[in-house]
Model the fold of this input.
Amino acid sequence: MKTIKQLVLTFILVLFTTAVFAETKMRITLQLPLKAHLGQNLLVFKKELEKRSDIKVEIYDSAQLYKDSEVPQAVGSGAIEAGVASLTRFAGTNPEVDIFYLPFLFDTETKVINATKQGSEIRSILDPAISKTGAVPLYYQAYGMAVMLSKGKPMTKPSDYENKKIRVFGKTLGSFVTSLGGKPTMVSGSEQYLAYQRGTVDAGMTGVSGVKSRKLYQVMDTLTVTNHGDIEFLLVANQKWLNSLTAKQRTAIAEASKIAEKAVRDDMSNIEAAAYKEAAANGMKIVKLTSSELEALKKASSSVIDDYIKRTGGAGGVGDKLVKAAKKL
Done:
């Protein structure tokens, strides 16, 4: 029989072993490759969080676990602790999030920075609403402005969109295409390369950083710098999982999120510049809009903003408040 001393030592050993191996795990799903700037930014978050806590971060990139469209449900249900998704993927339950995709509303970097910073009037409306889905926003990941990709001919005027099947990744972006006479086709980010290669669509919209990370210059030869919408991704975490953490762990997540968010936002100009450079170096024609072309596109798509306000509560509703907040920036 074991002595009392041996039993005590065994008990202490069991407690020590349990403490060592019972680490907290945070799995994050990402649709983009790890080498893409959003993936690199998650590595910043991982480094900062693991430095501040006992939480171990595992990143599953390139849609290994979930496609972009599946992330809100997967995170909200608790199937995974956290995930990165395009903001527009929450439009099903929160149509007001498409404020960033309204045509030409956020047409300068300064406006985007002021709109997306923590505590802004816009985020103070959006973030609590998104959290009700069970997926809590930790921080926004800048992805840059929306541009148009095509073959042989740029997309500079409304007639260039007429009767063309155009890849979009959100309802409001689809409304933009429809307002110009095009036919919007929903295609997830991880599937757009094949869509262009196979001719499933005639043209498409994406962030210029995605042209680089996904090598879209291999399947499309013309990039039109429309900058008609601001593409935002966000890292969300499951509400119940967050609530199960200690106060110290939640504080560490908040601190790591703040650092990672600033890092990607501050570097966005350089990221886009590098993407344009690589696209051009690989034979892609870069076309910029003239002032008259820009005004023509704005005029032709102005109804999209009115429709957005109507379907988000009408005059005085949440969408109306967000548009007014955006125009004040």
Q: What stands out?
A: Residues 176 and 265 are 26 Å apart (CA to CA).
